[in-house]
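Risk register update: the risk that structure generation would not scale has been downgraded. Supporting records follow, first protein first.
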Amino acid sequence: MSDIGKRFLWVSIYAVAMALLEAVVVAYLRALLQITDQHVALGSYIPLEVGREVATIVMLVAVGWLAGRKGTDRLTYGLFAFGLWDIWYYIWLKVLIAWPETLLDWDILFLIPLRWWGPVLSPVLIAGLICLTTVLATVQLERGGHPRFTAARLGVMTLGALLALYVFMSDSLHALLQGRPDWATLRPAPFQWPLFLIALILMAIPSLRATWPRHGFQTEAQKFRFKASLQRVEED
C-alpha cells in the first residue's frame, strides 16, 4: 500500500471509531433525557454538549495535523476525517438505536453558535462532498500538483457555505433577532430544500473543478507511456 493509502486508512479508522464513540454518547443522552423526534430538550446539559462539540472539532483537527506533513494536506486530512466521521455517526446511530428511521428525519446538527436543524440527509450530502474533494485534493498534493482554487472559486464556495449555514440556523436566527424567548428551543419550519440544494451546488461545482484531475485518473505508468509516445511522435 502506498504512503497516501496508509494515511487515509488510519485517518478512516480513527474517524469511524470516533463516530462510534459519539454515537454511544448520544444514545445515552437520548435515553437519559427521553429525547424523541417530538421532544428535544437538553436543558442544563447544553453547556456539556457545547463542550463535547468543541472537543470533537479539536480531535478532528489533531488527527489531520498528525496525518499531514504540511499545512495544506493537514487541512485536507482533517476535513476528510470530519466528513467520514459525520457519515459514520449516523450509520452507528442506526445500528445502535435504529435511528434515524429515514434520511429525512430531523436532527439537531450543531449547537455553535445557534442550533442547526436539518434532515439527516443534508449534512450527509455535505460530508460526502467533503470526503470526495479532500481525497482528490490530497492526491494532487502528494503527486506534486496543486488544487486549482482561484479567488472566484473560493468566493463561490464561501457563498454556498454561508447559504447552507443560513438554511440550518434560519429559524433560530430569526427568533433571536425578534427577541423571542424560545429561540434556543424553537422547532424549525419545513426544511428549505431549494435553498439548500443551491448552496450544495455552489459548494460542489467549484470544489470539484478545482480538484478533479485534468487528464482523468492516470497512473504514473500511463503518464510515462503517454509522454514517451509524444516524444517518439516529435522525433518522427
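Supporting record for the second protein:
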Amino acid sequence: MRTLARNWKHGQADINILALGVLLGDVVIPLVHEVLLHSGNSHSELRIALVSRLLKSVSAGRWRVLIADREFVGKAWFEFLHQKRIKRCIRIKETTRMDELLVREQYKNLRPRQVRGLMEKAWVYGSLMQVVATLSPQGERVIVASDLPLYDVLQVYRMRWGIECTFSGMKSRGLGLEDTHMTAPDRIGRIFLLLSLAYAWMVRIGAWRADALPIAVKAHGRRAMSLAQYGWDLLCDALRWQRPLFQTFLALLMTAFPSPSQPESESVRY
C-alpha cells in the first residue's frame, strides 16, 4: 500500500488530498481518500482513520508493506501500524531521533550512491526498526525506517515512484483534476473518486494490452509509457469508433487484475 498526498492552490483556496493506494506495475491506484481543508501535512489521527477505513475491506494480512514519504511520521502513527501488523517502509527526516542520536549524525559521512545500514535494529518513533540510508546524486540524504529485511528496504522504497506517475496521470498530464477549478471539498472528493475509477480502468486496459504487446523499455530501465497511458490510447479509440471493443473494455473493468506472477490469459474471464 502507498500513502499519497498532493496539494495545490486555486486562487486563494488550498486543495489537499490524502489517499491510500495499491501498487500495480508502475502506478498506484487510489483506494480511499480524504480531502483536507488546509495545506501542508496531515496529522496522525487522520492517517489512522484512513487506514482503518481500508482495513474494513482489505485485511492487514493482505498488505505486503505500507510505503510513505517523510511527511507521514509520528509515534502514534508508527505504533498503530505496528499494532495492526502492517509492515512499514517509511522515509524519515534527518532530525528524527534514532535511539539517542539524530539520524543525520549517524549518517553524516555518506558518499553519493553509498548505502549504509545498521547491524542491529534501532528505536524510531517508539518502534524497533531497520534504518537504511543513502545519498542521492543531488547530495540529499534518503533515510528509511522499515520492518523489512535490511537489503530489501531501499529497493521497496524506490517503488514509491508509482505515486508520481499516478498524480501526473490524474492531473495536468492526464485526466485534468486541476482543470476542474473546484474548491468545495465534497465536490473535489466526488470527482477524485470518479477519476480514480477511470484511472484504474485505464491501467486495467493497459495491463491487458501489455500482455499481448509489451511496452518498450528505455535505456534507463523504465517503460516508455505507463500502463495508464497505454490503456488510455485504446480506451479513447474505443469510445469514439469501436463499440464492440468498448464492450470488451467494459468487461475488463469488472475483472480482477492479474497477479504479478500470473499471466493475463489465466486471469481474464468474460
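The radius of gyration is 20 Å. On this basis the risk owner (M.S.) recommends closing the item.
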